[in-house]
Design goal:
With 253 residues, this protein is mostly helical. Helix content is 80%, strand content 0%.
């Protein structure tokens, strides 16, 4: 058993995150593009957000008064949630396999992720309700819950637990590491902001240029976020249980 005073190693998590992406760029960046970045761009085009963004506030208000736009946006939002859950589950499996030195098979990862899609969606809904309720109360409780449950999805995938059990297990793993997880989020937010600034020069080059740069940025941030959560889970298992990824890899063998 690892020393209870030990906590998440931010440097190790970041090295693992970017290392996994670097070793499997077609899988992680490709899936992030297809499942996150491209659907976001298509939804924006369908709802007219891109066109309206350059207009005045009244035009934007009128746009969202349209029933067809509201329905399209709601359907797109639901689709994005499903895609995001599928992406996260796939990245969890692929990350654990890679960190254990195993070959990552895209087909196998997606197949195993699809098998858990419904429980993962249920988990995501419960987490969202809990965190939003905590935010409504005093904000801080919501943030604490978000940090406490950050690895609930990896727990469900790797340890085959139910929704409530996954939340409890995530709380157990993150105990003593919440501040470090929060700091890691700040680091990733800074990276996202820096990537966002890259879009500024293209705002004068037209809608197409902005859209293309947005695709690149959303692809990168999607890959980093999805892989990062999986890497946090692996690191917490190592810290809490003093082991390595062998036991995790057996789950996805």
């Amino acid at each position: 058993m690892a020393d209870a005073a030990e906590h998440l190693d931010i440097g190790r998590v970041m090295n693992n995150t970017f290392g996994v992406i670097k070793r499997n760029p077609l899988i992680f960046l490709g899936l992030s593009f297809l499942i996150v970045a491209l659907p976001q761009a298509l939804i924006q085009m369908a709802t007219g957000v891109s066109a309206a963004s350059g207009g005045d506030a009244e035009a934007v208000f009128e746009m969202f008064n349209s029933p067809s736009v509201i329905v399209t946006a709601a359907a797109g939002w639901l689709l994005l949630i499903i895609f995001s859950v599928l992406l996260q589950a796939t990245f969890i499996i692929a990350t654990v396999k890679d960190l254990n030195g195993q070959q990552v098979s895209l087909g196998e990862c997606i197949s195993q992720a699809i098998g858990k899609i419904l429980p993962l969606i249920g988990l995501g809904i419960l987490m969202t309700i809990g965190i939003m309720f905590g935010m409504i109360l005093l904000v801080i409780p919501g943030l604490i819950l978000a940090l406490m449950w950050i690895v609930a999805s990896p727990v469900m995938m790797a340890e085959d637990k139910g929704i409530v059990e996954s939340l409890k297990r995530s709380a157990e793993l993150t105990k003593g590491s919440k501040r470090w997880i929060a700091l890691l989020f700040v680091v990733y937010m800074v990276i996202a902001v820096v990537l966002g600034f890259l879009m500024v020069p293209f705002t004068f080059a037209g809608t197409v240029a902005v859209g293309l740069v947005g695709l690149v940025i959303n692809t990168l941030t999607g890959a980093i976020q999805g892989t990062g959560i999986a890497a946090v889970y692996v690191d917490l298992r190592i810290v809490k249980e003093g082991g390595n990824t062998d036991a995790l890899a057996d789950v996805f063998a």
